[in-house]
Design goal:
Helices cover 33% and strands 24% of the residues. With 159 residues, it is of the alpha/beta class. It has 2 domains: 26 residues; 126 residues, Glutaredoxin (3-Layer(aba) Sandwich). Strands 2-1-3-4-5-6-7 form a 7-stranded mixed β-sheet, with helices on both faces.
């Protein structure tokens, strides 16, 4: 009798373990989100932003473009002149221009708003890849709409 109880307990524990693995959230086993970054080969802040993305779990591929080719790439990607920064990325059907924080990229992909993508125009000090966040200047992340207009997607106060 004792032997059958142990077998039953073992079976129940095994089933519970199997169900636990099967019901585990998909995010814990999902592949890293792929992002493709076009940048100037000599830009150090772009490299720092890429390192931040990698540390946050993104799978980054880099395309090195000279200045003229990178500017043409920005125009072809639909980035308005007043939203331009130093590097341009593509992810999940969106464009990400400049030093956009990884949390905002993930929010973009989760919410899927109507638009071309996000931009942090210029190169604000303290944005990801542009110096310490604790000493940053205030900046905004913009959602670029298909008609070229923008709206504020997120804001960051001075640190």
């Amino acid at each position: 009798m004792l032997h059958s109880q142990l077998t039953r307990r073992t079976a129940i524990l095994g089933l519970a373990t199997t169900l636990g693995v099967a019901l585990r959230p998909a995010t814990s086993v999902a592949a890293p989100t792929e992002i493709r970054v076009a940048k100037d080969p000599n830009c150090g802040c772009c490299g720092a932003w890429i390192d931040i993305l990698k540390a946050d779990g993104f799978a980054v591929t880099v395309e090195l473009l000279d200045y003229d080719a990178l500017q043409a790439h920005k125009v072809a990607s639909g980035i308005p002149a007043d939203m331009v920064s130093c590097h341009t990325a593509h992810i999940g059907g969106y464009v990400v221009e400049g030093h956009v924080p990884p949390t905002d990229i993930r929010r973009l992909l989760a919410e899927r708003p109507e638009g071309i993508g996000l931009s942090v125009p210029g190169m604000p000090y303290g944005s990801p890849g542009m110096g310490p966040e604790s000493d940053r200047e205030a900046y905004a992340v913009h959602l670029i709409r298909r008609d070229g207009t923008t709206q504020i997607f997120a804001t960051y106060d001075a640190g």
